[in-house]
Amino acid sequence: MIKKFAAELIGTAVLVFFGCGAAVLAGFDVVGQLGIALAFGFAIIAMAYGIGPVSGCHVNPAVSLGAFIAGRMSAKDMVVYWVAQFIGAVIGAMILGAIAKTGFAHLGQNGFDAGSPGGYGLHAALIFEIVATAIFVIAILGVTGAKGHGAFAGVSIGITLAVIHIVGIQVTGVSVNPARSFGPAILAGGQALSQLWVFIVAPLVGAVLGGLLFRLKLLEPEA
């Protein structure tokens, strides 16, 4: 479990540093929305093959919750993963803040209304984060299942995350990951911190929905 804890901590730190780093250090003017989306997707692909053999590369409390709901991990393991993921996200955001010219003020935090890149409101943020997280969890549980395509799982998951970002960056900056939102918000404070609850609650709701589809065998392949 120590190895799994370390893997999830490192993997989540890398995701936050690379994904949010693309937004903060490069930005829309340099790499654009597509570049930022690909940074998140490629970070997941890299970590899937780097730490996947150790922990499964959840690097996301919503993914761990989805796996628990689906009956693929214990509650004890899920809590250990959560602790590692939240700590890792803060570390990733701290590294980014130490490099960024703006310090900890802008760390790629998520938001709605004034915090939304496209000016989208709370209802749009909730709908997007719930639906997108459910889709993400479904993709992960499907490709990592007994009849999934294990060798290509990392690529599939990374592409799914990239597509979610392409669609949703203008809505919320895209969370689908409570830890990814937590790290930047805790350090940036202010509006990001006051809106953080949305990016914890909505992804977890989406994860439950996605996990239930497998728990109820609605998306499990025939034996």
Strand percentage, roughly? under 5%
Number of strands: 0
Average pLDDT, rounded to a whole number, is 95
Shape: globular
What's the SSE pattern? HHHHHHHHHH
- Estimated helix fraction: over 70%
Q: Can you characterise this structure?
A:
71% of the residues lie in helices and 0% in strands. The protein has 223 residues and is mainly α. α6 (122-143) packs antiparallel against α7 (153-172). The two termini are 31 Å apart.
What is the secondary structure topology, with strand pairs?
Elements: H1 2-26, H2 32-50, H3 52-55, H4 61-69, H5 75-99, H6 122-143, H7 153-172, H8 178-188, H9 190-194, H10 198-215
Structure summarized in a few sentences:
This is Aquaporin. The chain has helices spanning about 1-25, 30-50, 50-55, 60-70, 75-100, 120-145, 155-170, 180-190, 190-195, 200-215.
List its salient traits:
Glycerol uptake facilitator protein, mainly alpha, 223 residues
